[in-house]
């Protein structure tokens, strides 16, 4: 395989993206919402050049857009070592209609542990961001990170 044919993908937070990339995402959403809008009208509305829009339009997309066909992802939860912590997390996932594909809990060290979960969100209306936010609200969960996803 030629290295020029291989493209790496990255997950990156929106707040660190260049303004032109963020505007491209907004333009794509506006065009999706109003199919009668022309690209010229959309780039003018968001104050972006057409060349910048064309440069980025096929290279940037929201995670949820790529998760429409499959909704599998892996998260790592950083938790305080509390009796019943794993059971509490699993109960919450069940109420949110998330299916656990794989699970791993680390051995606690200094009263801290990690729980790695591969989840299938096919049977829920929750988006990835919603799941992360809900998990962060669980008592004794100190941090939640996305480590992989199927797209």
From TrEMBL:
Residues annotated as domain ACT:
74-149
Parts of the chain that traverse the membrane: none
Name of the featured protein: UPF0735 ACT domain-containing protein CJ235_04570
> Where are the annotated coiled coils located?
none
Q: Which PROSITE patterns match?
A: ACT
**Family, as annotated:** Belongs to the UPF0735 family.
What HAMAP family does this protein map onto?
UPF0735
Q: Which organism is it from?
A: Staphylococcus pettenkoferi
């Amino acid at each position: 395989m030629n290295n020029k044919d291989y493209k790496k993908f990255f997950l990156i937070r929106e707040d660190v993206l260049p303004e032109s990339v963020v505007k491209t995402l907004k333009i794509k959403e506006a065009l999706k919402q109003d199919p009668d809008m022309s690209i010229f009208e959309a780039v003018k509305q968001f104050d972006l050049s057409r060349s910048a829009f064309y440069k980025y339009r096929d290279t940037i997309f929201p995670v949820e857009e790529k998760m429409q066909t499959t909704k599998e992802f892996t998260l790592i939860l950083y938790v305080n070592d509390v009796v019943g912590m794993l059971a509490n997390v699993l109960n919450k996932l069940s109420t949110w209609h998330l299916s656990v594909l794989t699970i791993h809990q680390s051995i606690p060290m200094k009263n801290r542990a990690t729980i790695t979960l591969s989840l299938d969100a096919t049977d829920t209306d929750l988006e990835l961001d919603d799941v992360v936010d809900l998990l962060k609200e669980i008592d004794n969960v100190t941090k939640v990170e996305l480590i992989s996803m199927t797209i």
